Each structure stands twice: as C-alpha cells, then as structure tokens.
C-alpha cells in the first residue's frame, strides 16, 4: 500500500509516540500535592513546578520530533498525525478509547500550555507566598494544566470532554480561591454556570456527530465516531447530511462560545478576575479560554462543512467573532480596574481568533493563539507585579496607580513590549498573527469583517494606551503614593483580590506593606516577565509572512496539508492496540482504492489522480498513465495544485483538512493597519492627557453633558445590561413561573385534595368511633396495649439511637435475608 | 472474560463499605462508605453486563451513579445542618432517636 510507504518515509520518535505522557505528569503531580504537599518543605509547590518543567521538556521533545517529521516529508504531502489509543470503554459494539492524536496543532498548543504554565507556577511561588491555601492553589493550578494538556492531546471527543470539564472544575476552584469574600465565590459560580450553559452544546454536538458519523468511520477507517481523525475525514467525505453536520457544528460552537468568552456568554470572563492574578494569567493566555478556539481549530473540517465557511457571505462563527471583537473592546474603555481592561482585551482577541477561523483563516488564528498566549500572560503577570509590589493589592488604575514607570522599570518595559505586541505593531509578534487574520478575512471575501477587524485594531490601540497612561504615567496616586486604603475602599471594590486582608494573615512577610513605597518586584516575578516579553517580541518571527516563504515555518509545521490520502494513511498508529489495529488491518471498504493505485507509492500521485478524476472523461487512462510513469505525475503536479478537499467530495481516499488559500502579504495593507493603530495611539494619548493630566474642561464630564455620549457610557458601564438580562430576566422568567406554578398547584390542587380527604375521613372516623371503636376495639386494644408494653420494654435496648448500630442491624438483616434466599433457591 | 475478579473486587469494596458504616463515627466517612457500597454494586452490574454483552447493566450503573450523587447531596446537607446545630459531626453524640 502506498500509505505504508509514506509512513516509512515519515520520521517518528520517542517523544512523539509518548506525547500522552505530557498530561499524565501534571495529573500525577496533582495527587502527590494533594496527599503529600503539606508535609513537603515547600508546601507542595515543588511538585507543581517540577511536573510542569517535565511536561515542558516532553512537549519540547515532541515539537522537535514533529518538526523533524515534517521536514523529512516530501513537499506538500500530508504528514499524518501520530496516534495511539487504548480502549477505555466498550460494550455492544460501541467503544471509545483514550490516547493521543499528535499533529502540528497539538504540538504547538502543548508547547505553549506547558511553557506558560511553568512560568506562571514559578511566578506564583512569590505571588502567593504565605497564602492560607498555598498547597491547594498549586494542586488546582497543576490539575488545570493537566486538563488543558489532556484536551490538546485528546484522541477522541470523550477524552476532549474529560479535559474540558477538568478545566471547568479547576477554574471554579481557582477563581473562588479566596472564597471568604462573597463576591469571589459568586464570580466562581458565575464562571462555572456560564460555561456549563455552553457545555450542554458540547455534549449535544458530540452525540449528534457520533450518531451521524459512527457508521461511516467504522466502515471506512475502522475507528469510532468519537475519534478526531474520524470526524475530520467524515466531515469532508461527502457522507454527512446537511442538517446533521450543521446542527453538530452549531452545538459545538455554542460550547466554544461559553468556554472562550464569546458574545453573548462573555460575561463570566471579566468577573473571573476575582481569582489570584497568576490564575487570570493562565486562564486568559493558554488554558480555559483558548479551549473553545482550540475545539474549533481541532475539528475544523466539521465547522468548515457545517457552517459553510468560504461558501456564503457570512456564517455563525464569523458573526459572533466580529461582534465579540467590537463590544469587548468598547467595554475595555470604561474599566478602572487594570485586570478588567486586560480581561476585555482577551475577549476581544478571542473574537479575532474566532473570526479568523470562521472566515477560513485557520493558520493565522492558530498562530494568534500561539503569540497571544505570550503577550497576554506577560500583561497579566505585569499587572500582578504592580499590585504585588506597588499598589498594595489594588488593581484600580485611577485610584491607586500612576507614574509607576520610574519605580518599576522591568515591569514597565515588559508591559510596553507586550502592549505593542497586543496592538499588532510591526515587528512585535501580534503583528504577524493579527494582521494576517485581518488580511485573510478580507482575502476570503468577508470584507465587512475585515473592517470590523481594523476597527478592533484601532480600539485595541486606544484602550491599551489609556491603560498604560493611567498606570505608568502621570503622578502616583492612592496606594502607589503611599496612602494606605481604609476599609471603605476594600468594601467598594470587593471583587478584587485584596488578599492582604485575609490571604496573608497567617504570615508576617507582608507586614511591612503599609510602610513601603512602590518598588520593583523580586526576581521570581521579573524573570518570567522578561522571558514572556522576549517571546512577545520574538515569537512572531516563527511565521513572518512579510519576509517570504522561507520565514513561514509555523505554517509549514502546523498547517495540515489538504491532500487526499488513503484511509489507512490518515494516521500513523503507534503500537496498534485496541480499535486502532482495526484501522490498519482493514484498509478500506466503501471507498476502495483501486488495485493499480495500490501499487504506487507516491502520495503526490494520489492527488493528481483525484483531480484528474474530477476532470471527467477518460480518467482511467490518465490514472494508468500517472501511475505508470513518475514523470507524468511530476509534470501534472504544477498544474493541479488545487486539492478537492473541502470543496468537493474526494472520490478516492479521504481528506483530513480543507483546502484553504492564504492571502499574499502586501506591505500596503500592513501599512494601512499600522496607520490605524498609530491613529488609535495618538488619539487616545491626546484624550488621556486632556482628561487626566490637564483636566481640560472641554472633555472632563463630557458624558454628563452630551446625551448621546452619556447614553453610550451608561450602556458600557452596565455591560450592555447583559448581566441584568441573564440574572433578572432569563433566570427569573424561567425559575419564577415554575416556582409560582408549583406553589399554586400545591395550594389549590394538592391542598384541596388533602383537605377534602381530611373532611371525608373525619366524618367516617366519627361514625367508626361511635359504633365500632368504643364498643369492639377498645377491649382488644387494652389487651394488646399491655402486650406491646411488655414487648417494647424487651426490645428497647435495640433502639439505642446510635446510627451505626442501626446500620449494623440493617446489614445483618440483609445478610440473613440473602442467606435465606440462597438456601431457598438451592 | 473472567467475572470472578470483578466480583471479588466488588465484595471487598462492599465489605470495606459495610465496615465503614458500622464502625466509623464521623458522619462524612459514613457517607463515603455508603458510596463505596453503591460502587461495589455498580462493579457487579458492569461485570455481568459485560459478560452478557448487553447495555442494561451500564444503564443501571449510570442511574445508580446519578442517584448516588443526589443521595450524597442530601446526606452532606444533613451533615452540614448537624454541624450547625451541634458543632460536631460525631455520630456517637447523636442519640436523640433513642427510644
């Protein structure tokens, strides 16, 4: 078979074949921390940091071997993912496994997650020193990373859901880390319930796709309808019905909306700032919120077909993404809390990723996950550094910050680099990903959304300038100026992690808080900042489209090739256990590859053949010709660069990825977006100076004088009234009528029945009392009474009131009963 | 498929659970022991379901898991109330049911 031949040519390696170890390391470490953490000298944090370092080493090894594998493959050929499965559950013909599905996307995200998690854990060593639940914090943080890593390597949807839900649980635990504060535990609950609302979509979508795809995947590939590779190739095979795949894709996208904070379920993300800053950093950069984007990128063929990406003028994903970009960016303007500005900025950037995915810009969107993780983690850790060392655990920009650039040079420098990266300024990393998204969205015909993207870039530049200005320029205010806040400010801003109040009370390391002025943080905080800032500056060059093909390494390594491959060739199955063995043993069934094809060993030839098929007449001759001579296949290669994947049904073999075109890079377009960003900087800077520095009468209080602006301001401050809608209207309109209906049913129907029964019973009882009871029964009762009295005093010791004894009696009786049953039956 | 190992495992779990219910004084531990008992039943159901190749046992096990979750919710609520009223969850002190 040609598939085997290509696989022999493709390199694999120990790390690639054992990528499943990566989530296992932190998962084991979680248990070590839980059971032994408190007894360790460092309270369990050493397990967390060590396990993340281990995961990082493994992920690095896997990434290196994947690059070797891609580089060793022929140009443009499909590089099959490295798959390994064990059967987890099977019964009555249904089974699903657990294992790994490692391809370029997996490797890239694994690397990012392991890397950011490591840095965040190192940072937390300092940030949470002396915290009351230090050990449990590290346990949850480690499990959180384990969940994300598990989701990324997942071989099938069930395993993916497992990781997804672990993350949901851990985000609840971590956001509510300081749960003594009512607002924090409310935020944790809100995050949990909002994402759960979306998760219903994940379960529904998985079920829909499984029942639609299982038959085809079992027959053609020998894998279950849960497996990622099965679903991907099924979606492009022409087998799925329109309704099934559309409903499946919409349901899955609802899950992504909930998890990735897309409109209209984004409301939990800013509230999630109640957690400790390292948590916000991890949650917002590489785990949790990226999960939704990752889901869409992972099952891209399903969304590609289900949402008809590239087919119509607009689709669900691109519209949601576009709305999210703008509304979140606008909300960032009215926040006074630095972490909330960053939270809304994350929501907005996730909107870019979703919009990119929805518009067929798969690679730029995935690359944006990659770059965004570094600069957003850096920004959050920078905000944490400010609150830790300068503003006494306050995150209020207007009240407690300002002028910090002199006191915190390292934090300031890393912040500026990350801000420029976030705004997409050349040559910082955000430029190479965000600009590519905007470019490709336009290139694929979504012109409206290209304008939305550019508007988002303008807004991003403007709100980040405002935040930077308020934090680092001007005069120090409030806590940064040495004032110590009294109780009322804590009460007013109870949502923030002012954990000086309760987190550190067992520890005296921070007792000098009230006295010190703003200063730079310790090296455990600054070193992660510097590393992240370096990557925020440099990671863009992994896929620097402006410098030509040679620089587009990320594209080469990560983007799956849209080739038609044989059903056995879509995965390199390691070990071949469980269901995977079926895949390699029974090659094809319905889409049988003709015998003459099977003699060939060139994957390029398959592509040619499929295309020549679609050209129509006399294809069998062409087929013979192309298979017969290698020259032919090479000469036709240049002509038929198009792959049928995504647009039409592959007639032989299967596709794993749709054919997507990339927009050619143009400096003119880049210059235009740079100008827009620059305009954002300048206008915002001007406004900031006028408003906060000179207190210009023309601008200060404008929202109170101008009605339209006042309305907009009020709308933004109230977050578009979405929280009101959810809590007051939706929850009330559903929960209250139910409660009311139950109450009235109870009052009218049940009580009526009960009362009616009562009166009837009373009448009957009266008669019985007069006629029977008095005369007949009483005599018997008196006799029985004395008998019962005697029995009662005999049995009284049994009724000891001890629950355990009751339990023992219960089980004793059950055992005797079982024994009797056995004896009777035999 | 050897059902024996599953049955032995289930029996061991069941015995541990019964021991916990009878011997422990802490209400939470008693609840945990009840969970063990329920899960030993689950293992039995799954073992036989696997041997017979039917999904019935799995379905029952899923129901049991769901009901066990509800049961533990009620149980923990009772423990919480107990703790609020008496500042203790020691079952030995709880002998108001004495006849």
TrEMBL record, chain B:
Molecular function in Gene Ontology: oxidoreductase activity, acting on NAD(P)H
GO cellular component: NADH dehydrogenase complex
UniProt KW GTP-binding keyword: no
Primary site of residence: membrane
Biological processes annotated in GO: ATP synthesis coupled electron transport
Keywords: Membrane, Transmembrane, Transmembrane helix, Transport
InterPro entries: NADH_UbQ_OxRdtase_chain4L/K (IPR001133), NUOK/Mnh_C1-like (IPR039428)
Membrane-topology annotation of the record: Multi-pass membrane protein
Localization per record: Membrane
Transmembrane spans: 6-22, 29-48, 60-83
Family: Belongs to the complex I subunit 4L family.
Name of the protein described by the UniProt record: Unannotated protein
Species name: freshwater metagenome
